[in-house]
Amino acid sequence: MSNKLILLSILALTFGCLALAYEPAPLQDFCVADPSNSAKLNGVACKNPMQVTAEDFLFSGLHLRGNTSNAVGSRVTPVFVAQLPGLNTMGISMVRIDYAPWGLNPPHTHPRATEILTVLEGTLQVGFVTSNPDNRHISKVLQKGDVFVFPVGLVHYQRNVGNGNAVVIAALSSQNPGAITIANAVFGANPPIPSDILARAFQVDNSLVDQLQAKF
Ligand SMILES: *[C@@H]1O[C@H](CO)[C@@H](O)[C@H](O)[C@H]1NC(C)=O
Predict the structure, then answer these.
(1) Where is oxalate bound in this sequence (predicted)?
(2) Which of 42, 72, 151, 170 sits a CA distance of 20 to 30 A from 157?
């Protein structure tokens, strides 16, 4: 093989594998989710296309404010494949996030999606952290109309830095982005991660870990 061919083969393999890490391109117009079908596959089985209606592509209610009366002062209203069956196989979804004054959407990651967010109301401090070893913290204060992107898999957060409510709409590049909230995953694991493991990982006393584990 010539060098050029070898290079092309490597490129093809590389991009072939990258493509597999994301949701596959649809091979039909749509595959409306049929949650009643118990077939185990990557996604949800398709409803008979002849029985699909406009309702399968519709979600109503994203104008409604989420209830932010909770410990962190924010609420995510998801429009994922579970709420909108027409999203199945489409590689996209949406959320509304409401924030009470000074409310926080705590540090979390989406294992399967990049997120693009726009502020409809309020002022938000947002940020994400790059992977090891740099762990660079990239942050910004956003005003109404600003659009910010959180790259797939990176830990990110948003905080309302105003005395009024804040609202955003965000799109995510998966029908089912998943969320791992760092505090809950680390200190609220069920069954718990042994506290001496966390004490060593965080370089603190066991008693502080016990305190954190009791909270989550
Ligand atoms: C909001 O959530 C709180 C805490 O769960 C609950 O007490 C309250 O009734 C809820 N408010 C509304 C309007 O649903």
Answers:
(1) 105, 110, 115
(2) 42
How many folded domains does the chain comprise? Answer: 2
Question: Which DSSP letter does residue 1 get?
Answer: -
Closest CA to 167 of 146, 138, 195: 146
110 is in an annotated binding site: yes
Phi-psi region of 9 (alpha: psi -120 to 50; beta: other; left: phi over 0): alpha
Identify whether 14 is part of a domain: no
pTM of structure = 0.88
Candidates 98, 111, 106; CA nearest to 173 is 111
pLDDT higher at 185 or 3: 185
Q: Could you tell me the CATH number of the domain that includes residue 73?
A: 2.60.120.10
Q: Is the CB of 65 under 6 A from ligand 1?
A: no
Q: What band does 14 get if pLDDT is binned at 50, 70 and 90?
A: very low
Expressed as residue numbers, the domain containing 189 is: 179-216
Instruction: Give the per-residue pLDDT at 131.
Output: 97
Q: What SS3 class is residue 53?
A: coil
Question: How far, rounded to the nearest angstrom, does the alpha carbon of residue 185 sit from its chain's CA centroid?
Answer: 14
Mean pLDDT for 118-134 is 98
